[in-house]
Amino acid sequence: MTDKVLGVILGGGQGSRLSPLTQTRSKPAVPIAGKYRLVDIPISNCLNSGIHRMFVLTQFNSASLNKHIKNTYHFSHFSKAFVDILAAEQTVQNAGWFQGTADAVRQCMHHIVSHEFDYILILSGDQLYQMDFKDMIEKHIEAEAEITIATIPVTAKDATDFGILKTDEENMITSFIEKPKTGLEDWISDTGEEMQGEGRNFLASMGIYVFNREYLINILNENEEEKDFGKEILPRAITQSRVLSYQYEGYWTDIGNISSFFEANLGLTDEIPKFNMFDSNHAIFTRARMLPPSKISGTTLNKAIIAEGCIVQASKVEHAVLGIRARIGKNTVITNSYIMGSDRYQTFEEIQEETSKGNSLIGIGDRCYINNAIIDKNCRIGNDVKINGGDHLEDGDFELYAVKDGIVVIKKGVALPSGTVI
C-alpha cells in the first residue's frame, strides 16, 4: 500500500516568525534537539511508515537544506526511494514565487505526476511529532475518502490559532473555520472521554493531508486563484467532497515561532519527554557525521541533552540542550538554554592565533552565565559574558542578537566580546 503513496513536504515560506534562526536558512533546515534538522522529522515519519519517495518543496534560503538532504538521504541504486528538493522555479507557464501551500504543489505538479502513485501525502516541514502514516492512509482508503485531514484535539485557548472543524458520525468533515475568534461554543466536538477530560474539545487541523491523485490534480486545476490549502482549497472541498477526519492523540507541536521552538527543545530534557527520541519504532534519521563522543570535565549535569563531539568544562549545565561540537569553557553556567554548537572544530594553530590576538574562540568562553537563551551555530561567546533572558527584557531585533518573548537569540556566527552583558 505504501508503494502507492508519494510524500510532499512543504518547506514553508520566509519563516519570519522564527527569525533570526531563519535569516540564513530555510525553516526546515533549522537545527533541533542538538543534532537533527526540522525536516528530518517528517522525512523520518515517512520512512518509518514505509513511504520512501518524497519531495521537499522550498524557495527561501534553501542552500543549507539542499546540502543536508544531499548528505543525508542516500538509498540503494536498486531502490526506487528518493528524497528530492523541488525549489521554486520560473517556467514558461509561471514566472512567480510560490504564493501559498496549494500554489507550491500546483507549480511542482509537473514533476510530481511523472511518478506513479495513487495517494499523495502532504506534510509540513516545521512540526514535531511521531505518526504512523500507514494507519491514516488505511483509514482514508476504507472510508472511500477523497481527502483525509489529520486532526488533533485542542483546548479553547489553543483553538483560536488553528483551523477548527466539525465532523458527522462517520468522521466526515462537515464544516471548517480558520482561526475562530468568537462563537467557539458552536465548534465543540466529541473528541473522546480522555481528550474531553483534558479540556481538549475542539478538532484542529494539523496541516497533514492525504489526497487521491486525480482528485488533487482536478481540484488544483479548477481554480488557480486558490493559493492555500487551509484557507481556500479545503473549505471548498468540504462542501462538495468526502473529506475524512483522522484524529491523532499523540504529541504534536507546530514550530511556528521562537517561543514554541524553545519550549519544544527544552521539553526534550524532561525525565519522560512527550516527544520520545528513544523509540526504536520511530527512529529519527539524520546526517551521519562520524563525530567523537562528547568529553565532559568537572560539570554538574541535570536534565541535559549532550550531542556528539562536545567539549564541556562548564561548572553546571541544567535544563539545556548542547548541539554537535559545542565547546563550553570553565566555570560557565548554562541553564534553560539551547546551544546549537558548531559546524567545525578549530585547530590548535587557529586557537593559538586567535588567543594571541585576543579574539574569542568558537563556542562559549570561561566564567559565562547563559540563561533563557538560544545560541545559534558557530557563535563566539567571549569570557565573562552574561546573558539572562526573561520577561524583564523587551522584544527587539539588534545587530548581534534578538529578544522574542523574553528569549535571547544570539544570531548565527556572531562574536560577543568578553564581558558582554544582555
From TrEMBL:
Domain Nucleotidyl transferase: 7-270
Annotated PROSITE patterns: ADP_GLC_PYROPHOSPH_1, ADP_GLC_PYROPHOSPH_2, ADP_GLC_PYROPHOSPH_3
Enzyme Commission number, as recorded: 2.7.7.27
Gene Ontology MF term list: ATP binding; glucose-1-phosphate adenylyltransferase activity
Keywords recorded for this protein, A-Z: ATP-binding, Carbohydrate metabolism, Glycogen metabolism, Nucleotide-binding, Nucleotidyltransferase, Transferase
Enzyme class label: transferase
GO term, biological process aspect, one: glycogen biosynthetic process
Matching Pfam families: LbH_GLGC (PF25247), NTP_transferase (PF00483)
Keyword Transferase carried by entry: yes
Similarity comment: Belongs to the bacterial/plant glucose-1-phosphate adenylyltransferase family.
PANTHER family named in the record: GLUCOSE-1-PHOSPHATE ADENYLYLTRANSFERASE LARGE SUBUNIT 1, CHLOROPLASTIC-RELATED, GLUCOSE-1-PHOSPHATE ADENYLYLTRANSFERASE-RELATED
Protein name: Glucose-1-phosphate adenylyltransferase
Lineage: Bacteria, Pseudomonadati, Bacteroidota, Sphingobacteriia, Sphingobacteriales
